[in-house]
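User: These chains co-purify. Model them together.
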Amino acid sequence: MSFDRLIEKIAEKQNPTVAGLDPKLAYIPQYIKDESFAKYGKTLEGAADAILTFNKGLIDELFDIVPAIKPQCAYYEMYGWYGFKALTETIAYAKSKGMFVITDGKRNDIGTTMQAYAAAHLGTTDIDGTEVEAIGGDALTVNGYLGTDGISPLLDICKNGDKGIFVLVKTSNPSSGELQNLEFKGGETVYQRVGTMCEEWGKELPGKYGYSGVGAVVGATYPEMLTELRGELKTTFFLVPGYGAQGGGAKDCEGAFDKNGIGAVVNSSRGIMCAWQKVDGLDPEDYAKAARNEAIRMRDDLRNVIGEMKLG
Amino acid sequence: MSFDRLIEKIAEKQNPTVAGLDPKLAYIPQYIKDESFAKYGKTLEGAADAILTFNKGLIDELFDIVPAIKPQCAYYEMYGWYGFKALTETIAYAKSKGMFVITDGKRNDIGTTMQAYAAAHLGTTDIDGTEVEAIGGDALTVNGYLGTDGISPLLDICKNGDKGIFVLVKTSNPSSGELQNLEFKGGETVYQRVGTMCEEWGKELPGKYGYSGVGAVVGATYPEMLTELRGELKTTFFLVPGYGAQGGGAKDCEGAFDKNGIGAVVNSSRGIMCAWQKVDGLDPEDYAKAARNEAIRMRDDLRNVIGEMKLG
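Assistant: Joint model of the two components:
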């Protein structure tokens, strides 16, 4: 009912990184794609097969040093239901290796529908009396635009399991301020309001390291706001996108962490997945080793700024 | 690049209804489930098989009188990738019957990721030079919290096809006001601001009946706001949830329509799907006929209030 398990994995590996698995075909070595296309043709099935092979290779090289993965649903849905199957199999494989899985779906809806999303992504589905796990992640990103009754069904599921959610607060993209930075009459901004809602919702899911099971997505591309929000949202754990390809560096992430060096997990997707494309003369079969090297570089980069991660 | 096709179907059938297909197992007659469970067991595969049978039966009875369906992704994802396959097959079947398909996914993300969602739900996916349709809806519901660069990739895809999006403006749920009704310094509310953004985004996708390809979701449960927004957002077509099970009636929807009786499509999910459960002594095999009867009742209920739907 909190992010305790994620925080423990971060402390154990002394690495506050989550590897984003957003496997566009353009990021996958040609030899993998060729093998899959030989079996299934240039089809959705072929693409999904290549994605799963690519992901498993990455997970094999990352699981001992990186605590978590974050598959982005969009990059699986674009390969149809075959892609959704590859998403589910990727999640199962990462969990079998002991990784924490954050499903990046940014789901949102009214209460009755959020019950379905909660069952799908964090709980189990009742099939005429038999409970079955449909997708099986450990945490889900969600959008809070619909308010409390779009969040409550997730809290109910998280209470009964070892799960959590990350609510979009201040996103990493260039136009995030169009709505999120606007000020209400009292001077509070939209992102500050949603942040405060996270603190409120989090009271239902307390954790033993001071952070609840309701986290917030706050981009590394807006470091001042990251620092400000860390100061305001004492019990809200952060998922920080924007490191690497989106322009954020370790210094930009520093504000997300507390004095014990915990309080956030920093995502890198393209930086890790596409590392192999940036090494001159690399054998593409070593793509996962290149990802591992980049993950180690990133870990050390963050460690230099944050210091040791201590459990309270 | 607009909702012209949807508007023409509405005028042709003189029916501004979209049938929400949110097939929880509890809504499906036992005889359908028993047949599927006999083949596949009480599994995700069995559930997905029952859903598809149920949906096809509904579509067969609705396609000549209802212009559109709106499958809600959550109710497919809760049955895993088998459910996602049933979603895709439901969409294909409805399209083969000439229906307009609004995929209710409320997707949202940063620009690069929205390219993937746009390809998945409204466009095609490039598989090493071969373009393949992954899911195949006509329109997608989206959440505008991330601002313009989370919407632009959808506009680009819609420009090149006959597609559109519906952005959440004022949602139908009880707590929608927690964020959406808050007032900015100038007096504008969050939902009004997002509505104005829809008008701006819509300029890229003009339609011949006065409505762009960027629509807005506005709930029938807040009829005053529906009327207010119709007045303000002249070129924004509305998707109106909340009729029926959520408590809205035809009178509550009236404000969504213009003087020609167009401007909106009204959703009913449980009202139509579960109609069979409300008829005493009904043979469950007549579930789809009960849905048809309810769809006719709803059409006439709306027509009584709106009058004739005229194309300009």
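The domain at 4-305 of chain A is CATH 3.20.20.70 (TIM Barrel).
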